[in-house]
Design brief:
alpha+beta; Methylamine Dehydrogenase, Chain H; 12 helices; about 35% helix
Length: about 725
């Protein structure tokens, strides 16, 4: 009797080592995926950060300040009080101020509310003059330390009303280089005066020539506020009845008819946001509204776009941000708010840090602000990292500047600083689903049916050739497929599109007819051919059918979709569907073929033994049993299509539009990330929004795979008893 030999120690060691390596590899994959998710969340998280407004320094003033401004470093702060005294000082250190006194009229007080234009105080007097006091700052460096100094040159005096009537309202746009100014002023008798002054320097002699033009028209009754845009081409007036009047200035003259917006509570504050297209209106009931000037045909009008609820007190001051579509608002009760127009967000609310606050100003870099009150001026630090984004801005319809209605739009950058970023992810989500749907329309039928034929009908000798060849197709680089689709397939498809449309109808009919002819011929004449020879017959039929379609389509050389009123882009969803379908078919084929082949042969033999035909056996026994694997194949193909980048990047117009038409392009989440991320500043809003798009893509794939696995398990339990 021989003693049984146990398992060799070397084999046991290798088995244990293999288990450890496989387990470690699986855990490493899970850890890597979780690490990627954590990194994406880390980059996306700051988008949800709240804005912060903090008081830095407060200084007392001798008299109530009615206007204030600061330099780009927020070191020099200048104030203007109602007695015409201008003070400029290094605010943090509180050094001795530089003082200038404006030459006021007989009353010794400023007659109109003062305004600030590009580092210049503008004030009206009670004798018909407008005074311009520039505040010039100079930064010097000593031993690597920056020191800012302020100077106050002599005030410029412009005569608005030769008759000396008081200026009660005004607005101004001043050239910071000293090239002139445009003033719109309302005198005490209700006359609206527009004064345009320009200065030119002779390059040869250095002589400065001043030119001035003055236009006067009767002002509408109840004019409360005046506002010029940066180019002095549009003049707005806020009215006591709540309406907004609008003049188009031609050569400085308000010749065009005024337009009137809908009435409401009296207007108490009026400002233009960066770019001069968004007009912010503050009302006596505390509400804030944003209006756009629109041109519909030949009609110009002001359209109310957004409304921010107020706190019940009249809005007394609005300070627009110099670097975005945000603005600060101050009401009569000392309430303050930081708001952003595009995203319709209230970023911050709080109380003014000084009593009796009446003046508000943003710093040139939008990183700070000034609040002036009865006896003090406060410097604020403003931090608002990503005001452009929000739920509505990312996924909802937004009415952007220059648009005639609210839309979903993605346009992350432009050539001008006053550009309004459009960061809606909805067109990208739509484009991702559109590209996936069109590719699966081709890939799923061809992949599943070819797998069914290869596993159940194809001759084994041919299957040993066809299956590896199809699986090798999966190794083709997507960049090669995208290159061929964009440069070869797209122009070709445009030329033969009528033939392709015919093939969709003709080829299936020819295939079914050819199958019937083959079956009847072989039965009637008793033809015995080698297994797999029917493939050559069907290939020949398909080639002849395609040639016939091409010939028929060539009879109509002038035919095109444009003749039917259908827009056609050369790089469109059809091109992507064909190219991406070519990339997805091998994956679906390989997994589905394994699912068909793994159906127990006993089930197939039993069905055939009971008298079922081969087709009945495949459709009623094999197909239901293999359905979990087929579903898994489709879901894997879906995931491949969702995450595809290079094909959609090269084979579409990459246009983020919402349109199911197969003849238009689109933009997917993955292609958008590949396009935009090289130009996105690290840590900026666009950079983090792209990571949010990656997170959405991650979540979409995870959700689909989870649902697919649940469905697969349910199908597996259902058909496991067969």
């Amino acid at each position: 009797m021989t003693k049984a030999r146990g398992t060799a120690p070397r084999r046991l060691f290798l088995d244990r080592a293999a288990r450890i390596v496989v387990a470690a590899g699986g855990l490493a994959i899970i850890a890597s995926i979780l690490g990627i998710l954590v990194f994406i969340l880390h980059e996306v998280g700051p988008l949800a950060a709240r804005a912060r407004v903090r008081v830095e320094t407060t200084r007392e003033t001798e008299a109530p300040a009615i206007a204030a401004l600061t330099d780009e470093h927020r070191e020099i702060v200048a104030t203007l009080d109602e007695r015409g005294r201008v003070e400029a000082r290094h605010f943090a250190s509180g050094g001795e101020p530089v003082v200038a006194q404006l030459p006021l009229g007989p009353s010794g007080r400023i007659a109109s509310p003062a305004v600030v234009s590009l580092g210049t105080f503008v004030a009206g007097t009670d004798d018909g003059r407008v005074l311009l006091q520039r505040v010039e700052t100079l930064a010097t460096f000593h031993d690597g330390v920056r020191r800012s100094e302020a100077t106050l040159p002599a005030a410029e005096v412009l005569t608005i009303d030769p008759l000396g009537r008081p200026i009660v309202r005004l607005t101004a746009r001043v050239d910071p280089s000293g090239g002139g100014a445009t003033i719109a002023a309302l005198t005490s008798d209700g006359t609206l005066v527009v004064l345009r002054e320009s200065a030119s320097t002779n390059t040869m002699t250095g002589e400065v020539t001043h030119e001035a033009s003055r236009t006067s028209i009767p002002a509408p009754e109840g004019t409360q506020l005046l506002l010029l845009d940066a180019d002095a081409r549009n003049l707005y007036a806020g009215m006591a009845d709540g309406s907004v009047r609008w003049w188009r200035l031609t050569a400085g003259e308000p010749r065009e008819p005024l337009s009137s917006a809908a009435a409401g509570a009296p207007i108490t504050a009026l400002e233009l946001l960066l770019g001069d297209r968004s007009l912010v209106v503050g009302r006596a009931d505390g509400t804030l509204q944003v209006w756009f000037p629109l041109l519909r045909g030949t009609d110009r009008s002001l359209e109310r776009v957004r409304t921010f609820p107020g706190g019940g007190a009249a809005v007394v001051a609005i300070a627009p941000s110099p670097r975005g579509k945000g603005f600060l608002a101050l009401d009569a009760k000392g309430g303050m708010g930081l708001l952003y127009s595009t995203s319709s967000r209230v970023l911050w609310t709080g109380r003014a840090p000084v009593e009796g606050a009446t003046a508000l100003a943003f710093a040139p870099k939008s990183d700070g602000a000034l609040v002036a009150g009865a006896h003090a001026v406060a410097s604020l630090e403003v931090r608002s990292p990503h005001p452009e984004v929000g739920i509505s801005a990312l996924f909802g319809k937004i009415w952007y500047e220059g648009y005639s209605r609210p839309e979903y739009a993605w346009q992350s950058s432009s050539g001008t600083e006053d550009f309004e970023p459009k960061l809606s992810l909805t067109p990208l989500l739509f484009g991702t689903l559109k590209g996936t749907v069109y590719s699966l329309l081709l890939a799923v039928p061809l992949g599943v049916l070819s797998a069914m034929y290869a596993s159940q009908f194809l001759a084994p000798s041919l299957k040993r050739v066809v299956k590896p060849a199809v699986e090798v197709m999966a190794s083709l680089p997507s960049v090669v497929l995208g290159f061929l689709a964009g440069l070869w397939l797209a122009p070709l498809l445009e030329r033969v599109l009528p033939a392709i449309a015919l093939m969709v109808v003709v080829l299936p009919v020819l295939t079914i007819a050819a199958g019937g002819i083959w079956e009847k011929a072989t039965r009637r004449f008793g033809i015995r051919l080698p297994d797999g020879s029917e493939v050559l017959f069907f290939v020949g039929v398909l080639v002849l059918g395609a040639a016939l379609c091409l010939r028929v389509a060539s009879v109509f050389p002038g035919w095109s979709l444009s003749s039917l009123g259908v827009a056609y882009d050369q790089r469109n969803a059809v091109v992507v569907g064909i190219a991406m379908g070519f990339a997805v078919i091998p994956i679906i084929f390989a997994i589905a073929e394994d699912a068909f082949s793994n159906v127990p042969r006993s089930l197939v033999s039993g069905s055939l033994a009971l008298g079922a035909s081969r087709w009945q056996t495949v459709t009623r026994v094999v197909l239901p049993t293999a359905s979990p694997g087929i579903f898994a194949a489709v879901m894997v193909g879906f995931g491949r299509a969702v995450g595809e980048t290079m094909i959609v990047l090269m084979a579409t117009g990459n246009t983020p539009i919402l349109d199911w038409s197969p003849f238009n392009g689109f933009r997917t989440l993955s292609a958008n990330i590949a396009t935009e991320i090289p130009e996105a500043p690290v840590g900026g809003t666009l950079y983090r929004t792209l990571f949010l798009a990656a997170l959405l893509l991650f979540a979409l794939t995870f959700a689909i795979n989870t649902v697919a696995e649940l469905v697969r398990q349910r199908l597996r339990r259902k058909y496991s008893s067969l």
